[in-house]
Amino acid sequence: MDEAHSVSSKGIVYLAYGTALLYSFLPHAPWVILVPTAFMLPLWFLLIARFLARR
Are 8 and 54 in contact (CB under 8 A)? Predict the structure, then answer.
């Protein structure tokens, strides 16, 4: 259970770094930021829900 817990934590960290990198490389047009955010939000909620469920 501890291994799965650490993997879930790593997934959240990698997703955070990926989101930050994505935003730093993209031109800052509103639609360019809103579209990836719309796709990332369900993944964020899913990961956070799984993380909280395992605690």
Answer: yes
Q: How far apart are CA 16 and CA 10, in angstroms?
A: 10
The answer to whether 13 touches 20, Cβ cutoff 8 Å, is: no
* Domain range for 37: 2-54
Q: Judge whether 45 and 12 are in contact, CB under 8 Å.
A: no
Domain count within the chain: 1
Cα separation, 52 vs 8, in Å, equals: 10
CA distances from 10 to 26, 31, 38 (A): 24, 29, 22
- pLDDT tens per residue across span 18-30: 877 777 776 666 6
* pTM value > 0.85: no
